[in-house]
Write a structure and sequence with these properties.
This protein is α/β, with parallel strands linked by helices. Helix content is about 30%, strand content about 20%. Bound molecules: calcium ion.
């Protein structure tokens, strides 16, 4: 990465650079190599370093991010209005590679204080999660959660929280359609997230298509006492209050066991870190995502599990990911997930140019290709050892690709189901994203955001763009922060403020 006071160039062959100064660059500014800006260019946006004839490639990260839609002079602002979009890489043309990334030395001696579960997983929080089989019961669960917080939680000091795992699935859906397995598996696997300590409490209605018993299916049958179901339509209940009282009685049994959980020293290999970004800008691929990628490599070296996601944000960079697959079957699985999503988008007549968002564009990201190249920086350099379909649980140690939509809440929900115990969220434009089940560490790609949102952002990776820190230093800082957060010693901004988002299921199946 070549940096002057005003510009960052990401690769030697790039013919555009990114403006780093918060005020942007004024028209007529003298820049490096006798380059003079032809117009005002805002922070995060691109300046042409060379003459770019019409239809010539525009190169950032050493890759084609678009083509000049008109003749562009050196010093001009290169934005989406002057660019045309390249086609995504043809999936059938991507070569598999049998040569793996060089083995990196294991990283030993790093630990965190976690809650060890009977199934071997480790929690970073101690939470009672109340699952639901259908949206009809959302009112009761919210009512019950409020009462538990007020009346029961004070008696169980080791329990951090109680959360309603509400969603909009469960009825009015084609429950046996093949695609229904995605939301069903997601609901089943969220109940098994390590932060819930193996306790599964389900509130159901009684007549819904998704049977509450089905949510229990994948849970170990050895400890039936750790699972409970309440049906609102149970004829024993005379009125709402009796349902509330019965729910509180069930909750008490789970809370008693959760209250016995104690943090113990666990190796960093028990981390399961989910990574995604939201509200990205042109700095995301220079600062926050590379720092996350460095931390991801450290976690992999420590024997932990890391996943990155967001199919539409890696699709245009898939030719760089497939060669990193650990074997041909993983490479094929990556391609299959891309193909599935291509068909899904085609079926819905998705408009490819609608990603990037207006905020991405304002932040300097002109095309989805540019966004994708910045997005995959968070995957670091480790081999990709496994590919998860939406709703699946993470299987292997190392770096996995969990196929999910890119929408923050859907991606976060699927990574929860995959079993993450820490969530990294990189943002450039700023989003207040948070989850109550798992700590979300929010990392800003630019210092301007972390200064304005001083109480919403946990780490300022903008220090890389200003030259105050290297990617490596920031990556280590993030790694240590992950261990602190996983240990409960440091609370993330979203938890301090108590602001959390809803679960949003990915349901590619039909509604009825
Ligand atoms: Ca996202």
């Amino acid at each position: 990465m070549k940096k002057t006071n005003f510009l960052i160039k990401t690769a030697e062959t790039d013919n555009v650079a990114i403006v780093t100064s918060i005020e942007g660059i004024q028209e007529g500014s003298m820049l490096e190599d006798a380059l003079i800006s032809k117009e005002f260019i805002p922070m995060g946006h691109k300046i042409a370093l060379n003459e770019l004839p019409k239809n010539s490639p525009i190169i950032r990260y050493g890759q084609i991010i678009g083509y000049a839609a008109q003749h562009i002079q050196p010093g001009e602002w290169v934005h989406e209005g002057k660019m045309s979009l390249p086609r995504p890489p043809e999936l059938k043309d991507i070569p598999f590679s049998s040569k793996l990334t060089a083995e990196t030395p294991p990283l030993e001696g790093y630990t965190f204080q976690g809650y060890r579960n009977p199934d071997g997983s480790v929690g970073t929080k101690n939470v009672l999660g109340i699952s639901t089989s259908v949206q009809c019961v959302a009112g009761l669960t919210q009512y019950v959660v409020k009462k538990i917080k007020e009346e029961l939680l004070p008696s169980y000091p080791n329990v951090d929280d109680v959360v309603a795992l509400n969603h909009t699935y469960g009825c009015g859906v084609a429950i046996d359609a093949p695609a229904a397995m995605v939301p069903i598996k997601t609901i089943q696997n969220i109940a098994a997230n390590p932060n819930f300590g193996g306790e599964v409490m389900v509130i159901g209605l009684g007549c819904e298509k998704l049977r509450p018993e089905r949510i229990m299916e994948p849970h170990p049958k050895k400890q039936p006492e750790k699972s409970s179901i309440l049906y609102m339509q149970d004829p024993a209940f005379q009125g709402f209050q009796q349902m509330v009282d019965a729910s509180l009685e069930l909750a008490k049994q789970h809370l008693q066991r959760l209250n016995e959980r104690k943090r113990e020293t666990c190796p960093a290999s028990e981390l399961v870190v989910g990574m995604q970004c939201g509200g990205s800008d042109a700095f995301s691929g220079l600062t926050a995502n590379p720092a996350a990628g460095f931390a991801a490599d450290l976690i992999v070296r420590a024997g932990g599990r890391v996943m990155f996601s967001e199919v539409t944000e890696v699709r245009d960079a898939i030719h760089l990911l497939v060669p990193r697959a650990s074997d041909a079957s993983v490479a094929q699985a990556l391609i299959d997930e891309m193909k599935w999503y291509d068909d899904y988008l085609l079926h819905g007549e998705a408009d490819r140019s609608a990603n990037t968002t207006p905020g991405n564009k304002k932040g300097g990201l002109s095309t989805i290709v540019e966004k994708a190249l910045g997005s995959i920086a968070k995957s670091g350099t480790s081999p990709i050892v496994d590919v998860l379909s939406p709703g699946e649980k993470i299987r292997k140690k190392g770096l996995s690709f969990a196929a999910t939509p890119a929408g923050d809440f859907v991606c976060g929900t699927l990574q929860l189901a995959a079993g993450m115990n820490v969530h990294l969220f990189m943002t450039g434009r700023g989003t207040p994203y948070g989850l109550s089940m798992v700590p979300v560490i929010k990392i800003s790609s630019n210092t301007s955001l972390s200064q304005r949102w001083f109480d919403l952002i946990d780490l300022d990776a903008g220090q890389i763009a200003s030259g105050d820190k290297t990617v490596e230093e920031m990556g280590w800082e993030l790694f240590h922060l992950i261990l602190e957060v996983a240990s409960g010693r440091k609370k993330v901004a979203a938890d301090v403020l108590g602001i959390h988002n809803d679960l949003v299921l990915f349901n590619p199946g039909p509604l009825t």
